[in-house]
Design brief:
With about 80 residues, the chain is mainly alpha-helical. About 65% of the residues lie in helices and about 5% in strands. The protein has helices at about 5-10, 15-30, 40-50, 60-75, and strands at about 1-5, 55-60.
């Protein structure tokens, strides 16, 4: 499944809690489990930047971005 540019732009306008809810759903579809609590604003800004830099992104790429955040959180004790 591809995420097109218009869909990504719409997602980026969501407040942090709604965007995180969507990110959690994407992650869960790839058997990646994230906390219910949104990460800090800096992390959400980085997530938005990663998505907005993509012309098109597939679900696997999105899941990899989220998994990278998850692994970073584990290393930092989050």
């Amino acid at each position: 499944m591809k995420l097109d540019k218009k869909l990504i732009a719409a997602l980026m306008t969501l407040p942090d809690d709604r965007l995180w809810e969507t990110a959690r759903a994407v992650a869960a579809s790839k058997n990646i489990h994230l906390t219910e609590t949104p990460p800090p604003k800096e992390t959400m800004d980085a997530l938005r930047a990663a998505f907005s830099d993509c012309e098109k992104m597939d679900m696997l790429t999105a899941a990899k971005i989220i998994a990278a955040y998850r692994e970073k959180g584990k290393k930092n004790g989050r």
